[in-house]
Design brief:
By secondary structure, this protein is of the alpha+beta class. About 25% of the residues lie in helices and about 30% in strands.
């Protein structure tokens, strides 16, 4: 985690064996929304290298269907956490809620 850059890096454990991926790495990046003060935007950047043994239709499915679903949990979870914050809680930018 790099707090100064608002980033969290991740990668597949090189000791882990998987039939599907030869490589998986990326990062989450958080920034304040330029259009909605007090709100944040979260970006996911990932690089996946699939095993050459996987059929191309499975790789295509993962790229078009499964990867976009990888972030669908984020908004409801973060909004639920935010609703549970006590009145007057301050975010990382020092903004009262």
């Amino acid at each position: 985690m790099n707090r100064e850059r608002n980033m969290l890096d991740f990668r597949l454990d090189p000791e882990a064996t998987t039939a599907a991926f030869d490589q998986a790495r990326g990062f989450w990046y958080v920034e304040e929304s330029p259009h909605r003060p007090g709100h944040s935007r979260i970006f996911l950047s990932a690089k996946l290298v699939c095993s050459p043994l996987l059929p191309s239709f499975i790789v295509d499915y993962a790229a078009t269907k499964a990867l976009p679903k990888a972030t669908c949990w984020l908004k409801p979870v973060i909004e639920g956490i935010a609703r549970g914050l006590p009145a007057g809680a301050v975010d990382v930018h020092g903004v009262d809620h």
